[in-house]
Amino acid sequence: MNKKQFQIVYGIVLIVVGIGVFFKIPYVMPKVVAINYFAHATLVIEFSFYFLGGLIILAGAKKIFNILNSTGDI
Predict the structure, then answer these.
(1) Exposure winner among 8, 16, 44, 67, fewest CB in 10 A?
(2) What are 34-60's pLDDT values in tens digits?
(3) What are the sequence ranges of the domains in the chain?
């Protein structure tokens, strides 16, 4: 596996992990709310998780896009 193929696989993994974050948030938030220290900041924490998931997806898409547009062959 050469460097370009590895970078494409890495980009795909980032996208899958980002999507996984979106699916995991509804299961994690009740546990976060159960912690009294974080109970008042539920919306901020939930927004942060979704924002992080979106950034991970964008990072993977950008990596794949840059690799495929850099030089023609993979």
Answers:
(1) 44
(2) 988 988 999 999 999 999 999 999 999
(3) 3-70
